[in-house]
Design brief:
The chain is mostly helical. It contains 5 helices and 3 strands, in the order H-E-H-E-H-E-H-H. It has a 3-stranded parallel β-sheet.
């Protein structure tokens, strides 16, 4: 019962099916965002978790393996990002939020 599809293909085909069934969007790693946006269009609401701050994003992976920065998620096609532990476990959560807001604003330029 092993899977023969890549993760990217599986996510794409499930997102496509969700839209066909009337869903407005999906939650997906930012690693699939560009393919989902290109293949399924702007109608799809794309929510991306696994967001980590800063240029050294791979140093902050903890148990998440499919991660990226907020700016990269937005430029890849995400409509919304979900950030948990980088904020809730930060010594200065406001500073993390402000840095991510700046990163997103720069990505939207």
């Amino acid at each position: 019962m092993g899977m023969t599809q890549s993760i990217e293909d599986l996510v794409y085909f499930r997102a496509k099916r969700a839209l066909e069934l009337g869903c407005d969007g999906v939650v997906s790693s930012g690693l699939e965002a560009a393919r989902l946006r290109d293949g399924l269009g702007e109608k799809l609401l794309l929510v991306t978790p696994g967001i980590r701050p800063g240029a050294n994003v791979l140093d902050t992976a903890d148990d998440q393996t499919r991660i990226m920065t907020a700016g990269r998620a937005i430029t890849s096609g995400a409509d919304q990002v979900v950030v948990g532990r980088p904020i809730s476990k930060a010594a200065d959560p406001i500073a993390v939020i402000e840095a991510m807001q700046q990163e997103i604003a720069q990505a939207l330029r």
